[in-house]
Specification:
The complex is a heterodimer of chains A (518) and B (125). In chain A, 72% of the residues lie in helices and 2% in strands. With 518 residues, chain A is mostly helical. Chain B is elongated, with a radius of gyration of 22 Å. Chain B: InterPro entries: CPA3_antiporter_subunitC, NUOK/Mnh_C1-like.
């Protein structure tokens, strides 16, 4: 096979000839570890007792790796690793900046909490059908989406997390789950297909898929149908994030699986949509986003108000939590619509808070239901008397979700309101405050009815739960309190992440070390 | 050739949207299958369609000759085909199972997760 005629080819233009530095392998490690452990658990599918320890150890490792990655990114700036040593834009690049690293870290923490919570909630049948392998593969998709620097690769990670989420959603095959999964699967698949359409057009216009390369080319190109592309991207990611006119799959499906699965979905999946919206629209198409900012702002306001009204109308606590997830999405989109460093850092801070708070909210609702044996506001009651400590933690969490001090929900809201007032969008600031007010009423009513009111009837729930069932809630609650009392640290991280999105010079420098003058 | 395929892709999209707007899950499923193929054809067309220039790098050159079809979109399609095929298989089983368990293929009647007579939350203490 050896070519006999051609002269030796100079590979240095296309290949990175030196081996990848060991520290750079950190970038690929999170998805690789998750896929590898997921495969190991599938091989051990008959030894279901081994699943939980392996998965929890793996997710603890993921937290550690993501923390190291964040530390490294903060120390040396964005890190890029190319697959197969092909230089960008030829090879697939994994590029991590502060934004990707901090999202990956918080998502790993949330997944670890959900895995611990699963030990006391997921039954043997669901374990046998692969709860933990699905969980790890979901985390592979989520971490991959946060870390990749290639837009087609982002699409692939979306599909990885989507197919794993189908598995988790359908696990148990109850009739409600099948009904919810139909709507979830069809609408999410259409959403990612829209994303793929946009990626196809993007490649036809730019001839590259590497995000850093796209940033450079988007500056020089003119007359291309970038507005159409931007609309497609916004629609696709709004569908993933459950923004208002395309959000109805979320309250139709998120309450059907086990509450640990809902907690995981509520914490992670919609935020991946927000992440993609920020990454693609703010970094690649800032001019088009500015043109469309009014549309995004109106969508954001409608999302948060409609979701807050939805919360008021729900009797089932899990569906109420689903609307709470959507209300948070509205706040994040408001920050994206504002578009300044302050607005974006508010959106990013809110995303970090929302990942922790929504997961904890679903877990609290699950524990409340386990104690009382009921899911509805009309049937629950008397929890304050039976479990005062739990009631205290729940109240703290409700206040955090509603955005009241001294918890983590307050600060991003202050940043968002101030950022919208700074650009004169008083109606956007007003809708943030109004939606926060309605959410406060909805959650205060939950506390009133479920905790303070005496039980309306005999309750079939368990008398007490093992202390382990409350561990993840306490851990997440502690983080929420810490974020609330010491907001400087997450706020400065969010500001750094937002600044990196608006001016991606450091990101470009890590992908094209030669200065990117191509 | 590209113009012809563009019209075909448009027809595929129109058919897919029409089918997906149906209330019956099997038609929706067919719509999704056609949508996936429409996207694949779209990306395929985006990479230039030609038979005149063979995609071979000649001796002494280090890039494809001008006007050759771009092989990268074809690689993207391969990925997309595998993904959409697996999703279609999953949805097919899900639809069949939904038909078995819920006894209907009309999505308007699939109200198990969101019952129509869901009571309002209590208005008083």
């Amino acid at each position: 096979m050896a070519a006999t005629t051609s002269a030796p080819i100079d590979l240095s233009a296309a290949l990175q000839l030196a081996p990848t530095p060991a520290a750079d392998w950190l970038v690929i490690l999170p998805p690789a570890l998750m896929i590898g452990l997921g495969a190991v658990l599938m091989m051990l599918r008959h030894r279901i007792r081994l699943h939980a320890p392996i998965a929890i150890a793996g997710l603890a490792g993921l937290v550690l790796i993501d923390a190291l990655l964040l530390w490294r990114v903060l120390a040396v700036g964005p890190v890029t690793m190319v697959m197969g040593r092909w230089l960008p834009p030829f090879g697939i690049a994994f590029s991590v900046d502060v934004f990707g690293a901090v999202m990956a870290l918080v998502s790993a923490v949330v997944a670890l909490a959900a895995a611990v919570a699963a030990c006391t909630e997921i039954d043997d049948a669901r374990l046998r059908y692969g709860f933990f392998p699905f969980l790890l593969l979901l985390m592979a998709g989520v971490s991959g989406a946060f870390l990749t620097g290639d837009i087609f690769n982002l699409y692939v990670w979306f599909e990885v997390l989507l197919i794993s989420s189908f598995g988790l959603l359908i696990l148990g095959s109850e009739r409600e789950q099948i009904d919810g999964a139909m709507k979830y699967a069809v609408l999410n698949l259409i959403g990612t297909t829209l994303f793929l359409i946009a990626v196809g057009y993007l490649y036809a216009v730019f001839g590259t898929l590497n995000m850093a390369d796209l940033v450079l080319k988007a500056r020089s190109i003119s007359g291309a149908p970038l507005m159409t592309l931007s609309c497609l991207f916004i629609l696709a990611f709004a569908m993933k994030a459950a923004a208002f006119p395309v959000n109805f799959w979320l309250p139709a499906s998120y309450h059907t699986p086990r509450v640990t699965v809902s907690a995981l979905f509520g914490g992670l999946l919609t935020k991946v949509g927000i992440y993609a919206l920020l990454r693609v629209m703010v970094m690649l198409f800032p001019l088009q986003l500015e043109e469309l900012s009014l549309v995004v702002a109106v969508v954001a306001a409608l999302t948060m108000l409609a979701a807050a009204l939805g919360m008021l109308a729900q009797n089932d606590l899990r569906r109420l939590a689903g609307y709470a997830v959507i209300a948070g999405i509205g706040n994040m989109m408001a920050g994206i619509a504002v578009g300044s460093v302050a607005g974006l850092s508010g959106a990013i801070f809110y995303a970090l808070h929302s990942m922790l708070a929504m997961t904890a909210l679903y877990l609290v609702i699950g524990r409340a239901a386990a104690l009382t044996g009921e899911w509805t506001l009309s049937a629950q009651g008397g929890l304050y008397q039976r479990a005062p400590g739990f009631a205290f933690v729940s109240l703290a969490l409700f206040l955090a979700v509603a955005g009241l001090p001294p918890f983590s929900g307050l600060w991003p809201k202050i940043v968002l309101v101030k950022a919208s007032l700074d650009i004169g969008a008083w109606w956007l600031a007003g809708s943030i405050l109004l939606s926060g007010f309605l959410v406060t009423i909805a959650l205060a009513r939950v506390f009133l009815l479920v905790y303070w009111r005496p039980a309306p009837g005999p309750q079939a729930g368990e008398g007490t739960l093992p202390a382990a069932a409350f561990g993840p809630i306490l851990a997440l609650g502690l983080l929420i309190v810490l974020f609330g009392l010491f907001p400087e640290w997450p706020l400065s991280l969010s500001q750094e992440a937002a600044a990196g999105l608006i001016d991606p010079a450091a990101y470009l420098g890590s992908v094209f070390p030669g200065g990117g003058a191509r | 050739m590209e113009a012809l395929l563009a019209v075909l892709v448009g027809a595929f999209f129109a058919t897919a949207v029409y089918l997906m707007l149906s209330r019956h899950s099997v038609r929706m499923l067919l719509g999704i299958a056609i949508l996936g193929n429409a996207v694949n054809l779209l990306i395929f067309t985006g990479g230039r369609l030609t038979r005149e220039v063979p995609p071979i790098i000649g001796a002494g050159l280090d890039a494809l000759p001008e006007g050759a079809a771009n092989p990268l979109p074809q690689a993207l399609i391969l990925t997309a085909i595998v993904i959409s095929f697996s999703f279609f298989a999953f949805l097919l089983v899900l639809t069949y199972r939904a038909y078995q368990d819920l006894g209907t293929d009309d999505t308007d009647e699939m109200r198990l997760a969101e019952p129509k007579d869901d009571p309002m939350p209590p208005l008083g203490y």
